[in-house]
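Now read this:
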Amino acid sequence: MVILIAILVLGFLIFVHELGHFMVAKIVGIQVDEFSIGFGPKLLGYQKKEDTTLYSVRLLPLGGYVKMAGENPEDEESVNGFNTKPLKHRFAVISAGSIMNFLVAILLIVITYGVIGIPIASNSNVIGEVVQGSPAMAAGLEGGDRIISINDVATENWEDVTSNIRKNGGQELKLVVERNNQRHSFLIKPKYDPEYEIYQIGITQSIIWQRQGFFQAIQLGLNQSVQFARLVFESIGGLIAGKYSTNDVAGPVGITVAIGEAAKGGIGYLMIFAAVLGINLAIINLLPIPALDGSKLIFLTIEGLWGKPVDPEKENFIHLIGFALLMVFFILITYNDIARIISGG
């Protein structure tokens, strides 16, 4: 189920990105030969009789592409080819994928905040989650349990729960909880947390979703999108500066696991996580790395400054080398993902 959800989320983000390229290409009159989701052998294909565009789904769901006439040096000359269009049109087509990802990410956040809400910690005495390996888990507590009392002292809200645990220090606690309309007693010995310098049993507050008004949702969505984008830039800067290593980068396997964790929290968390992935995809694609959209924009900028395009064969060779390096990087981070899962990281 997790893999299916991950494929749907990543497929949606890829579709949005390629749709941006496709829409602008059609608007400026470029002949589009194929709109594909995925790479490799074709699984499904559809083409109208009066349309030159083939719409396809391919075997490997690791990306997608919009194949335009005149995009490669070996393409036959076409009056509506990519290479025949003005520089501003070509620049718009290449940048449209990332712009579309960013706009849809904003939309996902706005819809989440306006329809589902913003997740905030509840002050109720209901347990949200039980921390793995904690005293609470060892004792048998579960998420959704309502803590009625601790050492025979009533706990009506979360403040009562935390204050009762802390004031008893490391002494064994007797918790009475309500689960499925039945009461159960548990004996739990808190564990000292040196980071926060307090005793804890390993439980978290439950979360409630607070819906926002229309204009408030838009404002918060825009602000949150900018914050997410800033974090992506900071992370990229950290990688360049050596603050982070490739071990800190998640590949397809790691992203699949992360999507699964987000899905466990419900549709709200999943939509926000999809928005974050969309912003990541938008920014990374604009980096000046060969084979990515950013490098193509660099070549178009050089053409604008120089007055003529870079030799297409040289440009394609650079993109080919870049693609090969990206595949090596892809294999490396996939290996790291699997290694982290095996080691329990």
In short: DSSP finds nine helices and twelve strands in the chain. The chain has a mean pLDDT of 85. The two ends are 22 Å apart (CA to CA). The longest strand covers residues 32-46.
